[in-house]
């Protein structure tokens, strides 16, 4: 039987801890066995921003933190033949590959063999009108406002590139589990209709794709769930065996925790019907899966079942959604909540009188905010209280000027609002609406090549 | 005779929220496998839906995973458009796992 494959998780999202991959790479290097480290840095919004960046400058459009992420680990990965697979190519995998070559050259390293995976960009193969036709979302109209449209490619191109000798594989939009399934398929040489094994590799990817979420991150609850060393939480390493079992662990000497509880939470994360988790390569069924502790910070996982892949490929389509304006002001001490409510009323009345054309929402942070609804139903039901309350306005409209003017109504509360208002902050950010589309497979061709 | 204890679900289970578009999923896992039947009986889709009534969700579906001692709730239309449309601070709904954990459950004397 083929030796196990070690796969480390290096990032779970764009903005994850830059230093986290270092202990993972050190551990993989120590192990001296076939190993890969993966990076997931591509949220829906990130790709829309990247597409915009590329349209302004053809050399841009890949993960802006790419050099910072790979810089500390590139030499060790190349020296120990730890392959790197990441979707940090975003809207410009070729640009990312070029940046990595420059990074290697500047560090005096031999030029790595870098493969790029392309074909996810639907704007390159279909018209905006066609793409709008593939969505069920009325928001996209005739498609003229589409900023980005990317299909989720599967693991095949990644697997082929690795089998052909790539040191580094750079992708755009792929299904997150494909970042692990690709290396697994390349290592074990399984068939693309071996559904249970595809499901197993996909489950491994699902556990690793969010970084520390499986090793004690997004988990600690003091008094109920203790996690040591959260400041230095170790990112995950999976030991993936050919018999359909894997062990989730983390580098020795790092903080965090790997338990049946952390693994169960990550296994079910973003899952809907647990018998039917759709990916480009397989439909995963987790209902038969079992997790068991087999040592300190070592959890064995098995039981993934698979069914044939879907007939269509899912894609994410982004359109411009105007601007989000946010502005906040704080009140504290006696009657803080009453003064904050008065401030909200003042701003609401001014926006209504002036016919503000957009959507608006008021929160009282410290009384009711993240559980509340736009209409204010939840907040009304809360008793006024709290001696440190932050009133927050949020507005949305297509016209940036309208949004900025609305935000300034909070700023004017310094002189025109209730007593003791302080600490105003404002922000205006561009909004992208995203929706799903289902594309006939024959319209999408994933490809890979050495860059 | 001691009365049954009423306490928040938070005391006997942990939860994690995830989002896709305007749809939230919250897994609920018993700390102690022996409490799984209690979760089945008392942590129903209807009761979870009621916790989010102010958000006027669509369908709320409960999936059961006995091998993991867990339930998975899928709540449609509860994120006020989702992270890319919501005016709220937490468009992903990541804090909402603890709204589910606020549900009151009753422990019979011998289940504690």
Put the structure in a nutshell.
Chain A contains 14 helices and 18 strands. With 451 residues, chain A is an alpha+beta fold.
Tell me what the structure shows.
The complex is a heterodimer of chains A (451) and B (112). With 451 residues, chain A is α+β, with helices and mostly antiparallel strands. Chain A has two domains: 5-316 and 436-450, no CATH class; 320-432, Alpha-Beta Plaits. Helix content of chain A is 30%, strand content 27%. Chain A contains 14 helices and 18 strands. Chain A has a ten-stranded mixed sheet with strand order 11-12-8-7-1-2-3-6-4-18, sandwiched between helices. In chain A, strands 5, 14, 15, 16 and 17 form a five-stranded antiparallel sheet that branches. Chain A has a three-stranded antiparallel sheet with strand order 9-10-13. In chain A, strand 9 (277-278) and strand 10 form a beta hairpin. The longest helix of chain A has 18 residues, at 336-353. Chain A is globular and about 75 Å long. The model of chain A has no long low-confidence stretch (mean pLDDT 96). Chain B is α+β, with helices and mostly antiparallel strands and 112 residues long. Chain B has one domain (5-103): Alpha-Beta Plaits, CATH 3.30.70. In chain B, the strands form two sheets. Chain B has a four-stranded antiparallel sheet with strand order 2-3-5-4. A two-stranded antiparallel ribbon of chain B has the order 1-6. In chain B, strand 4 (60-65) and strand 5 form a beta hairpin. The mean pLDDT of chain B is 94. At the A-B interface, helix 10, strand 15, strand 16 and strand 17 of A face strand 2, strand 3, strand 4 and strand 5 of B.
Keywords summarizing the entry:
heterodimer; A: 451 residues; alpha+beta; Alpha-Beta Plaits; 2 domains; ten-stranded mixed β-sheet; five-stranded antiparallel β-sheet; 27% strand; B: 112 residues; four-stranded antiparallel β-sheet; 3 helices; 32% strand
**How many beta-strand segments of chain B?**
6
The count of DSSP E runs of length 2 or more, i.e. the number of strands of chain A, is: 18
N-to-C SSE string of chain B, H for helix and E for strand = EEEHHEEHE
Structural class of chain B: alpha+beta
What's the structural domain tally of chain B? 1
Shape of chain B: elongated
Poorly predicted residue ranges of chain B: none
CATH architecture of chain B: 2-Layer Sandwich
**Average pLDDT for all residues of chain A:** 96
Helix-residue proportion of chain B: 10-25%
Mean pLDDT of chain B: 94
Strand residues, percent of chain B: 25-35%
- Number of H- or I-type helical stretches of chain A: 14
Percent in helix of chain A: 25-40%
The helix count of chain B comes to 3
> Over all CA atoms, what is the radius of gyration of chain B?
15 Å
Proportion of strand residues of chain A: 25-35%
Spatial order of the strands forming the largest sheet of chain B: 2-3-5-4
N- to C-terminal separation of chain B?
15 Å
CATH topology of chain B: Alpha-Beta Plaits
What would you report as the Rg of chain A, rounded to the nearest angstrom?
24 Å
């Amino acid at each position: 039987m083929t030796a196990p494959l070690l796969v480390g998780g290096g990032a779970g999202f764009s903005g994850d801890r830059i230093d986290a991959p270092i202990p993972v790479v050190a551990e993989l290097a120590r192990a001296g066995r076939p190993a890969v480290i993966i990076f997931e840095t591509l949220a829906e919004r990130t790709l829309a921003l990247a597409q915009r960046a590329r349209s302004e400058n053809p050399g841009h459009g890949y993960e802006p933190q790419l050099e910072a992420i790979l810089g500390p680990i590139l030499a060790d990965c190349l020296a120990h033949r730890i392959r790197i697979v990441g979707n940090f190519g975003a809207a410009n995998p070729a640009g990312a590959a070029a940046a990595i070559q420059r990074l290697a050259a500047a560090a005096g390293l031999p030029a790595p063999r870098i493969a790029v995976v392309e074909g996810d960009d639907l704007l390159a193969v279909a018209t905006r009108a066609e793409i709008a036709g593939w969505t069920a979302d009325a928001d996209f109209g005739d498609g003229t406002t589409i900023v980005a449209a990317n299909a989720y490619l599967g693991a095949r191109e990644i697997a082929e590139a690795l089998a052909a000798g790539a040191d580094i594989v750079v992708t755009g939009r792929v299904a997150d589990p494909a970042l692990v399934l690709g290396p697994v398929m390349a290592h074990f040489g399984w068939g693309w209709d071996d559904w249970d094994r595809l499901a197993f590799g996909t489950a491994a990817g699902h556990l690793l794709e969010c970084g520390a979420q499986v090793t004690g991150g997004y988990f600690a609850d003091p008094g109920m769930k203790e996690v040591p060393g959260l400041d230095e939480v170790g990112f995950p390493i999976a030991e993936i065996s050919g018999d359909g079992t894997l062990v989730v662990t983390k580098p020795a000497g790092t903080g965090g925790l790997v338990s049946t509880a952390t693994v169960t939470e990550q296994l079910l994360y973003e899952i809907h019907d647990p018998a039917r988790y759709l990916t480009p390569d397989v439909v995963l069924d987790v209902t038969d899966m079992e997790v068991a502790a087999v040592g300190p910070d070592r959890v064995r996982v098995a039981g993934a079942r698979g069914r044939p892949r879907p007939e269509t490929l899912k894609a994410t389509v982004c359109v411009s959604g105007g601007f989000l304006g946010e502005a906040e002001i704080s009140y504290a001490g006696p009657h803080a909540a009453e003064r904050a409510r008065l401030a909200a009323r003042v701003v609401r009345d001014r926006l209504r009188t002036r016919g503000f054309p957009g959507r608006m929402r008021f929160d009282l942070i410290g009384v009711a905010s993240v559980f509340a609804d736009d209409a204010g139903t939840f907040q009304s039901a809360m008793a006024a209280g709290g001696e440190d309350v932050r009133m927050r306005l949020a507005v949305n409209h297509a016209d940036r000027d309208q949004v900025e003017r609305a935000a300034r109504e909070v700023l004017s509360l310094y002189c025109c609002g209730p007593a003791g208002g302080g600490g105003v902050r404002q922000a205006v950010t561009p909004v992208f609406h995203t929706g799903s589309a289902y594309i006939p497979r024959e319209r999408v061709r994933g490809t890979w090549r050495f860059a | 005779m001691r009365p049954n204890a009423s306490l928040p679900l938070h005391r006997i289970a942990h939860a994690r929220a995830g989002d896709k578009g305007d749809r939230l999923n919250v897994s609920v896992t018993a700390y102690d496998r022996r409490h799984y039947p209690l979760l089945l009986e008392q942590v129903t889709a209807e009761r979870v839906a009621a916790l989010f009534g102010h958000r006027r969700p669509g369908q709320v579906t409960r999936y059961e995973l006995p091998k993991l001692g867990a339930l998975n709730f899928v709540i449609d239309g509860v994120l006020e458009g989702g992270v890319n449309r919501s005016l709220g601070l937490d468009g992903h709904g990541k804090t909402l796992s603890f709204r589910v954990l606020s549900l009151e459950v009753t422990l019979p004397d011998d289940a504690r």
